[in-house]
Design goal:
Layout lengths: L3 E3 L4 H12 L4 E5 L5 H10 L3 H5 L1 E5 L6 H12 L4 E7 L6 H10 L2 E5 L4 H12 L8 H4 L8 H13 L3 E4 L2 E4 L7 H11 L8 H10 L5 H12 L4 H9 L3 E4 L6 E4 L2 H10 L2 H15 L9 H14 L5 H13 L3 H13 L4 H13 L3 H9 L10 H17 L10 H6 L9 H8 L13 H19 L3 H17 L5 H10 L6 H17 L3 H18 L2 H18 L2 H17 L3 H14 L3 H17 L3 H18 L2 H28 L5 H17 L6 H14 L3 H17 L3 H18 L16 H11 L4 H8 L3 H15 L7 H5 L32
Parallel strand pairs: 1-5, 2-4, 2-5, 3-4
Antiparallel strand pairs: 6-7, 8-9
Helix pairs in contact: 1-2, 6-8, 6-26, 8-9, 9-13, 10-14, 11-14, 14-15, 15-16, 15-22, 16-17, 16-18, 17-18, 18-19, 19-20, 20-23, 23-24, 23-25, 24-25, 25-26, 25-27, 26-27, 27-28, 27-29, 28-29, 29-30, 29-31, 30-31, 31-32, 31-33, 32-33, 33-34, 34-35, 35-36, 36-37, 37-40, 38-40, 39-40
Amino acid sequence: MSDIELDVDRDESVRVVREALESGRGIVVSGPPGSGRSHLVRTAVAGLTEPARRRIRVHDHDRPRDAAARRRAAEAVARGQVVPVVIESTSAPLDGWLRRLVDENGLARVRLAPWGREAMLRLSHRFLGGPLDPQIVPALIPARDGGDLVVLREALHDLQAVGSLVDRDGQWRLEAPIPPIESLRRLIFSRMGFEDPVDPVETVIDVVALAPELGTDRIRIVLEQILGIDPLPTIEMLAERGLLDIVDHPDGAVSRIHDPVSELMLVRSMARLRRRRLSNAIVADLTTRSPDDATDAELVCLARLALPLGWELDGTTLARAAETALRASRTRLAEHLATAALMKGAPVEATFVLAVAESQSGRSAVALKRLEELDPSQLLPPHDRTLRELVRLLRARRDDPTSQWNVPSLAAQERDGVEAAPADDAELAALSRPDPPIGAGVWADEAIVLRGERMGFDAAVMAMKGHTRAAVDLLVEAEGMLRDAGADTFRVRWGRIYTRMWDQSFDRTLLELEFLGDEAASLGRSDQEALCRWCTGLGLQHSGRVSEAIPVLRSALAALEQQGFAEPALLAHVSLAKALALAGHHAAATDVLAPVLEAGGGPLVAGWLDDAQGWMQLSAGEPEAAARSFIDAAAVHAGYGYPLFQMIALSGAARAGAAAQVIDQVDELAGLVEGECIALLVRQARALARRETGATEGLVAEFEAIADTAVRLGMRGHAAQSYAIAAELHTAVGDARAAAAVTRLGAEQTALCGSEWFGTRHDATRELSDRELEIAELAVLGLSNREIADHLVISVRTVETHLLRVFRKTGIRQRADLRRAIGGSARPAPGPLHDAPPRIATPARREPPATGRP
């Protein structure tokens, strides 16, 4: 087995380790501290058989053994008496006897990749038993990948214990400032290998954590003034031990704490007086230089540390620091610094920077109001030209109704502005954690950002017109342009997933949305996370998985309303009402739809509303009314020029029994609307129209093929309905076995949907006689034909005859499928069977060939 790099979900790692140990081969589990090495080993060993488990011996490199114990362990491995498991830290590779043990015995090696920030966020939810408030994520979850899980877990638990982290309405929120926590600080240094840290080690680590923006040379100067000695040997020692990273940077090397969780928590756990003393020393050194001589990163560090301490900084310095933060895509920090700059009488450039940051944070209407008050002649080049372009693009967005459906309302944008003064230096430190370091990024030209976003909106309109492939190409171009500009690419990536929803498997779409939503959550972007969760609910609802869609849409609806996304919130109401109705909750669906009927909405809402009412009527047993609503929805979408949604509505009409009425429109749109899932809607509508007109030749095979394709595309509702229709057609020609087989397939899809409307659940027991069911249940319990015959006092031939009938009626061909065929009807065997000799309770025997006797 070669070395294996494992994903953060660790499922594959557990399997690999377990298989190696079961085969008697030892293994090395390698990873950074806190990466879950020990937990992985415990999980893998717990799943072994008892004999294999007794042979396992775990050797943790972090817990050395004495010479006698090492000798005994090596001899036991050499004799094959034990299977070794070695836990290795990547920060301290194996040496000595463990190195020889690994080399001489050919141990396999599993390397654990660092946890990604999305995984860290999910783990924090697990530690707390619920999600973090997105607003506090940057304060507790590092922006860099990796981190010590032990430190993260203890930090969260400590914050719970002191009452800072409180559960409010199912989310964990910071209800009080985070106090210094000495026990957490001791844990961090202990994990670094310092049980009782003393200077200069403690001060070097603290200063690097407080000022991650500063170059190594500047850090050295600051530390020399604080310590009175040259700190370079300590810095080099910490770097050699893997505790500090020295990162190359255009302005010189930058030092940072290697573990991002420890870096974040060191500032939080530091005593306030110590933090103020060290911060004052850093600021005092930085103020000895003229702002003109300081690097951009030094100015950001100066502004960030000086403001909470009350140091006087002029508006020009703060404005330059704000612009630097904006160039590094630290938009929230840029807003804080620009706001402070304006309070200090900063030049007009600070207003420009603040407006740009607001626009990049999603508050374009607020940014436009601010920019319209500026005179371009007051700005220095190139800001003057950029201002004119920004105003033009923002006005175009404001005046285009198709651009408004997924942006917050003006009231919400004004509400979500930053505070004039940040809470403390720890809060600003969390906002500035640089990866890459501040100053290494490129200027995120706001005109380019807006052009990229405009391309995203144009692509959304193209998609609604059915031009999926061209829309995706445009979004890929926009993403590349934004990435090159150093700007946030969320909008176009989200747009690409949304655009491809009907041109790829829904399962893939949902997975992509999950990853993007987790990324947004890990960055504390609750607005972006809300859009992802809403689209996830929408995808679940479109695919027919309504029971799963309901809780997702409820949560997304609350988040959208909180973030001020007015029109997406109305659309979420509509989607939730549809899902509730299909799940049989008609009264709840009516209540959810009421706000939409009262508020109205933009171009999309009216058509979606008619479509939802169609599904509510269809699930209530009113197919004629439903068909009319679907046709009305299609007309509304056609009027606004949205063929994609027109096609979806016409598909609903066809499924409601009006396929022959709408098939001409479907055929006309088939050449205009692209997408693999759309092609399936067209194919299903055509098959439904043929059925309505009596053209049934070859139709059963067509519905089965449609259903099989729908399963592949994750369209569970369409699959369930098509299987149900195929079963009806089989029954009509007397093919009971085929009918039972496809009915069972349909039942599986219906179960995934959580809605009986899409297809009828197959209850095989209804078609079986009492004796047939009794024999089938005994067979499911693992009894042989002879054992069943002895138990029921009948002949083996009679048992075989009854089982053949069961196979025919349920559509199965082998004994192994019995449990699935009669599933929920299987019950404990009656009477004496429970008291029968042990031979009757033996495991199921080897099944006969598929074409053999039952």
